[in-house]
């Protein structure tokens, strides 16, 4: 493991975030780190975990802690899944394959974004663990159908349909850092913004050696080929998923379907009615509609609406294993994490992702022992106190 991510330099996810900031140009770091508009929801996601407090049972021996669980029938070594993070290949060479490999080694699942730089077949082959494919309808229905077919053949076990991206969120940091200009390919427009790339020569060399700005090999537009980077914002705006789309998606995909981006009890019920096998309470890590409530606070309302009919997962703001424990105490089956591992990827590639997972694993074991709880399957609301004003139905 490179020294840059070893203890004592890196003890927690915030340390990995700082290490990523050192290696990455500002435009790439802010792409990971930033959120939409005033970043209210981005911050609130993390704060919601602080608002939940523990009620430990002390003087209880827990010699071994069992972290194992199943999600959609698939065994996982702990209740953690790496969330879809688009363009991971900008963060690190062959970023999606690298992250999937680290997830497989750790015995957890990896969800691959439609908007990734590596071929989905290569990502599935890189991991020895379960892989899920996250679907956007960019490029249109035929394009999505061909990706769905490829994902089935490649061995992806679940399709994650993201429903919170009717348009791309307003990520102000991306505008200020010149993302649009850098993607324009026009030297005159790019010039004011290229300096930030030159200040990180190590990243720049590896980015160029990996082929430079990638296309999207899993978004193959009939008659045109892989979608280019410059087209992505427009394509997202033209390709929202509606509840009606779930019908043809269900027909085309024989595996499990996970609906990602549920904020309320009402949408949770619609997801169940649409035939989902699981849902993710998610606000896209505060990157889409700013001002929505933090996911953890919405979990009780969603659980009441779902009434045990499908599995409920959560993401947004998970930075410590204790956050995972809190989500599980509230009733989530498992959590997804985006930034926690993306910082690791940015800091040191596979070793950085492995370090992020190792940190969360160690946190989980320690937190369970300090709570006096022998297994994550035994976690429930009796181990926490929740703010009285959180929404419930
Ligand atoms: C850099 C970045 C890119 C993302 N790209 C996607 C994506 O392509 N598809 C998607 O459904 N979610 C995407 N997300 C959202 C994550 O899947 C996840 O919902 C979010 O990161 C959870 O919040 P957290 O970062 O606080 O863990 C992205 C998140 C980040 C940070």
How would you describe the overall organization of this protein?
The protein has 393 residues and is of the alpha/beta class. It has a single domain, classed as Aldolase class I (TIM Barrel, Alpha-Beta Barrel), CATH 3.20.20. Helix content is 45%, strand content 14%. It is built from 17 helices and 14 strands. The strands form 4 sheets. The chain has an 8-stranded parallel β-barrel, surrounded by 7 helices. Strands 1-14 form a two-stranded antiparallel sheet. Helix 1 (13-23) packs antiparallel against helix 17 (339-371), helix 14 crosses helix 15 and helix 16 crosses helix 17. The longest helix has 33 residues, at 339-371. It is globular and about 65 Å long. The mean pLDDT is 97. Flavin mononucleotide binds at residues 31-32, 45, 83-86, 113, 115, 134, 162, 260, 282, 284-285, 287, 315-318, 337-340, 342.
CATH superfamily: Aldolase class I
Question: From the 3D coordinates, which CATH architecture would you assign?
Answer: Alpha-Beta Barrel
Note the total helix count.
17
Q: Structurally, how many domains make up the residues?
A: 1
> Do you know the CATH topology?
TIM Barrel
């Amino acid at each position: 493991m490179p020294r840059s991510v070893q203890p004592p330099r890196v003890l927690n996810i915030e340390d990995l975030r700082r290490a990523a900031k050192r290696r990455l140009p500002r435009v790439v770091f802010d792409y990971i780190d930033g959120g939409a508009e005033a970043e209210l929801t981005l911050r609130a996601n993390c704060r919601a975990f602080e608002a939940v407090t523990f009620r430990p049972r002390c003087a209880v021996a827990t010699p071994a802690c069992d972290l194992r669980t199943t999600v959609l029938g698939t065994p996982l070594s702990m209740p953690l899944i790496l969330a879809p993070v688009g363009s991971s290949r900008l963060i690190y060479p062959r970023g999606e394959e690298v992250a999937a490999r680290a997830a497989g080694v750790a015995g957890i699942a990896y969800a691959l974004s439609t908007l990734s730089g590596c071929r989905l077949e290569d990502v599935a082959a890189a991991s020895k663990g379960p892989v899920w494919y996250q679907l956007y309808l960019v490029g249109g229905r035929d394009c999505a159908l061909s990706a769905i077919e490829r994902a089935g053949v490649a061995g992806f076990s679940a399709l994650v349909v993201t429903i919170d991206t009717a348009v791309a969120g307003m990520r102000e940091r991306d505008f200020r850092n010149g993302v649009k200009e850098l993607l324009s390919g026009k030297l005159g427009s790019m010039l004011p913004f290229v300096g930030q790339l030159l200040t990180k020569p190590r990243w720049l060399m590896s980015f160029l050696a990996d082929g430079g700005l990638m296309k999207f090999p899993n978004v193959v537009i009939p008659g045109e080929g892989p979608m280019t980077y410059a087209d992505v914002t427009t394509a997202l705006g033209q390709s929202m998923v509606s509840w009606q789309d779930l019908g043809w998606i269900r027909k085309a995909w024989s595996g499990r379907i996970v609906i990602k981006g549920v904020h309320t009890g009402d949408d949770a019920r619609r997801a169940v009615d649409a035939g989902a096998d699981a849902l993710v309470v998610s606000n896209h890590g505060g990157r889409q509609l700013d001002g929505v409530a933090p996911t953890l606070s919405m979990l009780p309302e969603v659980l009441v609406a779902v009434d045990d009919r499908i599995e409920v997962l959560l993401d947004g703001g998970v930075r410590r294993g204790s956050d995972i424990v809190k989500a599980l105490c509230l009733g989530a089956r498992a959590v997804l994490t985006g930034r926690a591992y993306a910082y690791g990827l940015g800091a040191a590639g596979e070793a950085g992702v492995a370090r992020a997972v190792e940190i969360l694993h160690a946190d989980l074991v320690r937190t369970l022992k300090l709570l006096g709880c022998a297994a994550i399957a035994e976690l429930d609301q009796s181990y926490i106190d929740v703010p009285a004003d959180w929404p419930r139905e």
